[in-house]
Specification:
By secondary structure, the chain is α/β, with parallel strands linked by helices. It contains nine helices and six strands, in the order H-E-H-E-E-H-E-H-E-H-H-H-H-H-E. It has two domains: 171 residues, P-loop containing nucleotide triphosphate hydrolases (Rossmann fold, 3-Layer(aba) Sandwich), CATH 3.40.50.300; 71 residues, Helix Hairpins.
Length: 267
């Protein structure tokens, strides 16, 4: 008789009540040189980061590996109207089909972060791409061979990256997160996500590149190619996003085990 596998739900960290006045003072004094808002997809991190930017007088730097691409709007959930009057950076900086990578992000981040601080404004890094966040907050030097998930190391390059980041994690339970993912997916499908991806293919973006971008771009492309039915596409995509959110939480908890303090909040 086969052994049954039981899924173990990891306990969520306890949410905190942050002292934003103290955080503002730390940013002004240099005790904090970067605020990082991270969390799994559908946890409300963008909305939280925007409100935090309003309170701290900040600008947002996106840490999303797919929002860098122009024309990939609905599928990546850019929701640019959500930023309102708050300036944002590193969104729509590459053409779809290009192979933008974590090294390029590190270089682009450094330019933007340096400029924001030079103007006396608070830089707020917000996103869910763990490799991007690690690359700019752990002093990672691409000349070395250590993995991005490794503990922070000292190098000459680390001197020009943030030295005192303050990490905030947006917390949401699994059931609520999955329900939000499902509702958001249905909304994006109704808003024209399939037409957006069809348009990218018609513009000459190779299907192989869209498949490589994963999630929405992978499964909708498979649907447009006739590989999946609509219902298969929707069901498999929802499951894949649920799994992706779980992997994101695993990455954040791994950062904590490597010595990073993340202040978890309920947005």
């Amino acid at each position: 008789m086969p052994r049954l596998k039981h899924s173990i739900v990891a306990e969520l960290p306890e949410p905190e009540q942050l002292d934003l006045a103290q955080l503002a003072n730390d940013c002004a004094s240099g005790a904090c040189d970067l605020v990082v808002v991270l969390g799994p997809t559908a946890s409300g991190k963008t909305r939280y980061a925007v409100e935090l930017a309003r309170q701290l007088g900040g600008e947002i730097i996106s840490a999303d590996s797919r929002q860098v691409y122009r024309g990939m709007d609905i599928g990546t959930g850019k929701d640019l109207a959500e930023y309102g009057e708050i300036p944002y950076h590193l969104i729509d900086i590459a053409e779809p089909g290009e192979q933008y990578n974590v090294w390029q992000f590190q270089q682009d981040f450094l330019k933007v972060w340096t400029d924001i601080r030079a103007r006396g404004t608070v830089p707020i890094l917000c996103g869910g791409t763990g490799m991007y966040i690690n690359a700019v907050t752990r002093g990672y030097d691409f000349k070395e061979k250590t993995p991005l998930s490794a503990p922070r190391t000292e190098s000459s390059f680390s001197e020009v990256l943030p030295r005192q980041p303050f990490f905030i994690g947006t917390l949401v339970d699994r059931e609520t997160r999955n329900a939000r993912i499902d509702a958001r997916l249905d909304a994006r499908l109704q808003e024209g996500m399939i037409d957006e991806i069809r348009g990218l293919l018609e513009r000459g973006v190779p299907a192989e590149r869209l498949l490589a971008y994963g999630l929405e771009y992978k499964f909708v492309t498979l649907y447009l190619q006739g590989v999946l039915s609509y219902e298969e596409m929707r069901t498999q995509l929802a499951t894949a996003i649920h799994q992706f959110a779980k992997r994101q939480m695993t990455w954040w908890r791994g950062m904590e085990r490597s010595g990073v303090t993340i202040h978890w909040v309920t947005p």
